[in-house]
From TrEMBL:
GO terms for molecular function: FMN binding; oxidoreductase activity. Its cofactor is FMN. It is an enzyme of class 1 (oxidoreductase). It comes from Natronospira elongata. Keywords: Flavoprotein, FMN, Oxidoreductase. It comes from the Bacteria. Its EC number is 1.-.-.-. GO terms for cellular component: cytosol. Residues 1-149 form the NADPH-dependent FMN reductase-like domain. It holds the Pfam family FMN_red. This is NADPH-dependent FMN reductase.
């Protein structure tokens, strides 16, 4: 099983990139997380699209289309979705004829990290209309919020907090189980 993990920040020391790395290391056996970010993606402009899809967008679209599930690790900006990650997802939804291949029916899990106290809860809820619009299958079975992430996450892509690490491990195994159930459903 291959999960595409996208960290929604361009920042070198991104807490969300560190969270993705920590989650990848906790994935259950037989489940590999490909870690990507959103670098190289310009601000969406239909004139630019008409000239041809940027390579970074094509590459993310293909990675998503070939994955068994999508793990979005999203910062929270002003209690909503962060513009740069929304921009990347918007690019990936182009042209509309590709939405079926790239997104529709694909299992998705959402999580995120913040130095603040609320763990990106507001941003995670704010993603829901977009998931619905793209026809993604959101996994509702687990929730993972990472507040105080400057202390909770170590530079080496590990959790500093054992309880949080255990919650994250369960989050990853729950999502992998969901993907397995979904793919069995598709075969039948
Ligand atoms: C933030 N940040 C933030 N944090 C939060 O918990 N709730 C919020 O509403 C906001 N709003 C917000 C707006 C803008 C414009 C910025 C730049 C930042 C702080 C944010 O969580 C913090 O910068 C994280 O470190 C961003 O994630 P990365 O880049 O570390 O992955």
């Amino acid at each position: 099983m291959r999960i595409l993990g996208i960290a929604g920040s361009l920042r070198k020391a991104s807490l969300n990139r560190q969270l993705l790395s920590a989650l990848a290391s906790l994935a259950p056996e037989g489940c590999e997380v490909e870690q990507r970010d959103i670098s190289g993606i310009p601000v969406y402009d239909q004139d630019l699209e008409d000239e041809g899809m940027p390579t970074a967008v094509e590459s993310l679209k293909e990675a998503c289309a070939q994955s068994d599930g999508l793990l979005l690790v999203s910062p929270e900006y002003n209690q909503g979705v962060p513009g740069p990650l929304k921009n990347a997802i918007d690019w990936m939804s182009r042209p509309p004829a590709d939405i079926g291949r790239v997104f529709r029916g694909r299992p998705v899990a959402i999580t995120g990290a913040t130095p603040g106290p609320n763990g990106t809860r507001a941003a995670q809820y704010a993603w829901l209309p977009t998931f619905r619009g793209l026809g993604l299958q959101l996994w509702f079975g687990g929730q993972l919020y990472v507040p105080g992430a400057t202390n909770a996450l170590g530079d080496s892509g590990r959790f500093n907090d054992e309880k949080l690490e255990e919650r994250a491990r369960q989050f990853m195994s729950g999502f992998a189980d969901f993907i397995r159930v979904q793919s069995v459903g598709q075969v039948q």
